[in-house]
Each structure stands twice: as structure tokens, then as C-alpha cells.
Amino acid sequence: MEFPIITFLLLMIVATSAETLPPQLYWKFVLPNSPMPKAITKMLPNSPMPKAITNLLLPGVDLGVRKGYDDGGASEVNTIELSNPLFYHHDESMADVNSEELPAPFHYNDAASETQSHGKPSGTVFFLETDLLHGTTSSLKFSKTFSENEAKFLPRDIANSIPFSSNKLEYILNKLNIKKGSKGARMVQNTISVCEVENIKGEKKLCVTSLESMIDFIISKLGRNVVALSTEGNKENEFQHYQIISQGVKKLGEENKVVVCHKMNYPYAVFYCHETDKTKVYSAPLKGADGSRVKAIAVCHTDTSKWDPNHFAFQVLNVKPGTVPICHLLPRDNNVAWISN
């Protein structure tokens, strides 16, 4: 009986050691055969963050995470207004940067707003699966990042020590040194509210506050043999026409074995990760009007019957819920699709 006990103790030591590893090493430890995409590597902390750890122990002291969440600057307003990862702003004019209200997240069970309903159909990232397979031209914008949100991951022990709940909003704002009543405060509240929305039928979601937590969620849904994918381009581009090169479109992974993670607006990296039934993932090469190339990741939902009938995708594509698969491209940098390998 000694051998099993020793083995158990060794496994416990290894597991405990893994829990204390830096985020990038934790990835390598539990996902040794899964390359880390650029969307993740650019959000790794630049250092072990000893100052952040010290600051975290003092309420109201700057944590050293992303700045600029108080009122008073145009860049701060633009960052918040044009950065919702669950809604794809196909035209910047659709977002009022002077608005006092933050845009609502784009959920499957949300109807299109009055402003969204009058958006230009040629500029949406939503399209039909048949368009993907046969090639089509759409007006898309692939900037360095849709949200310009460069917030980085916190190590799990730090992230776990900060509450992430609407019941603790005042404490969170104080901890992150964000002025109560500011746009930054409303952004924090909005993000937490999104994460607390009830799942639609067939959806399993979790807002992860660290890279380690994201990895654990992925493993719980897909196992360890996984691949992380993100949209990549060879340069930063303005809003323009892109054509899907249908000959290069390739289906990736197993159908219905997909988890997509969207980066949220928050002072440090928080991702909305969700697994939905009946989902496909494709790699889709795009060619821009200026000759630029984008290696895009497309996610197709084959069952939209549970979506809100007034969802913007139905309006822009002129289809009804549950009739045809609806696809969308993942914006660059801040979104990751996970598939079983």
C-alpha cells in the first residue's frame, strides 16, 4: 500500500506546484502540445508583478493595471464606447462616443437596438455559411484590435483575491482605484453584469479572470488535446472590403467541440468564454481591397432557434431564427476559439 500513497503524494506535489506557476508556464505545463496564439501572448504580464502583489494588500492603492478609466479624456471614451467584444461595430458611426450610456453587450438572446437596426448591412461581420464556402465580399475592419484594450492578465492568485461580483462593486472600484460614477465605473459594472446574465439554452459560459482559469475551463469542456486559434493579419487596416478566398477555407476540429473566449472591457484581462451547442469553426483567408491579407477565424452557429427573433444578425441577413447557419468572424487579437485537436 506504500506505493499508491507515495504516488498520490507526488501527484499532489506536482499539482500544487502547477498552481503556483506563472501564467505562461502553467500553459506549457498543462497544455504542452498546444501553441499559444498571439492573442494570448500579447496579454501576458511583463514581469512577476511584485509591486502589484504589494499594492493589492492595500485597499484604494493603485494596482498597477490598465489606466485611464476616469472621466476626462476622449481616448478613454473611445476605448469604452467602441470596444464591446460581444457586439461587432461594423461602422464607427454606429457608436456615439459622446453618449453617457455604454453599449449593451451583443448576446444571442438580445434584440437589436434602434441604432443597430439602422446599421449598414454591407459592413457586418455576420454572414451565411454558404457565403463562407463560396466566397463573398464584405466591408470589414481589422484594426490592431477592435477594443484597443491592452489590459494584461493578472496571475491567478492575485485575480482570485479581487472579487468579481455585482454585490462587491464598491469594493472592486476602490481596489482598482476607479472613481465611483465615472465611465470606467460603469464599464466595470457593465462587464460584470454581462458575466452574470443567465445562459441561453445549450450554452455553458464562464467569465475567467486569469489565463490559468481560462485553461482550466477549456480542459473541463474539451480536454487537454486542444488548439487555440485567433484571427491574424499582416498589418493594421482601416475599414474596407474583404473577400473570402473560398479555396482556402478549411473546417477545423470537431463540430460541437468549440469554446470561444471574448475579451471584456476591464482594467485587467477578463474573458467571456462560452461553449454552445451545434457550432463549427473554419479558417478563412481574406484578401483586402488594398491587397492586405488576414488569416481569419470564422465561427458558424448551426442552430439559432433560441436566439432572439430580433437579433441584429437576422435583420442584416434577412433570415429567420433556426433556418440557416449564421457565421461571424472573430475580431483580431482579443478573441480566441478553442477546438479539440
From TrEMBL:
<dbReference type="Pfam" id="PF03181">
    <property type="entry name" value="BURP"/>
</dbReference>
<dbReference type="InterPro" id="IPR004873">
    <property type="entry name" value="BURP_dom"/>
</dbReference>
<keyword id="KW-0732">Signal</keyword>
<feature type="signal peptide">
    <location>
        <begin position="1"/>
        <end position="18"/>
    </location>
</feature>
<dbReference type="InterPro" id="IPR044816">
    <property type="entry name" value="BURP"/>
</dbReference>
<feature type="domain" description="BURP">
    <location>
        <begin position="124"/>
        <end position="341"/>
    </location>
</feature>
<protein>
    <recommendedName>
        <fullName>BURP domain-containing protein</fullName>
    </recommendedName>
</protein>
